[in-house]
């Protein structure tokens, strides 16, 4: 015979049990998320080390053409370019721009079709707002904007000051040290009330 008992959710004991079960579920989900984050870090640690090694090779005299090809190839695998700005600046800032060796044939063709002045976007934190990676797509930058990246910055940059265009990972990324910020927005979740 089937049990036809109906739970009375207004009963404080049952409601407390449900709250406790939800707290346990939330705790275990946070542990699972942390494990996924740690796995991601382990998977990408080699790439970051490779990027660091590549910068060191150029600083020690690796041929520029080969170094630029390798840098362009690795660019999309590294999300922490901000940490390398001071090392990248002397290696890339001199130009002439764009640095075609960093781009694929498709990227060079797309770059050639860009207007002379670009509007670019960056979803970021305050601590890395002065980064060198910007998107030509407001939608891509806005997708990064929110609780994780509380700022959305709009900037302008002359095409002649763009280091390279990168199309990897479904992004339309512009690399530049010379973006002039024209607008800064905070995500709704980080704005002060009232």
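^ structure tokens above, recovered residues below v
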């Amino acid at each position: 015979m089937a049990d036809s008992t109906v739970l009375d959710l207004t009963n404080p004991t049952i409601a407390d049990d449900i709250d406790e079960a939800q707290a346990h579920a939330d705790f275990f989900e946070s542990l699972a998320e942390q494990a996924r984050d740690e796995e991601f870090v382990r998977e990408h640690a080699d790439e970051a080390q490779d990027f660091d090694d590549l910068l060191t090779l150029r600083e020690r005299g690796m041929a520029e053409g080969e170094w630029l090809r390798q840098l362009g190839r690795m660019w999309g695998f590294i999300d922490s370019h901000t940490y390398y700005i001071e090392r990248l600046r002397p290696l890339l800032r001199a130009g002439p721009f764009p640095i075609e060796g960093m781009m694929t044939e498709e990227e060079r063709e797309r770059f050639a079709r860009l207007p002379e002045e670009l509007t670019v976007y960056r979803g970021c934190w305050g601590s890395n707002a002065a980064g060198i990676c910007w998107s030509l797509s407001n939608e891509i930058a806005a997708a990064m904007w929110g609780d994780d990246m509380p700022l959305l910055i709009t900037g302008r940059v002359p095409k002649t000051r763009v280091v390279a265009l990168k199309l990897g990972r479904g992004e339309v990324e512009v690399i530049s040290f010379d973006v002039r910020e024209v607008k800064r927005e905070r995500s709704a979740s980080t704005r002060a009330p009232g």
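Helices lie at 12-59, 64-74, 85-92, 105-112, 138-144.
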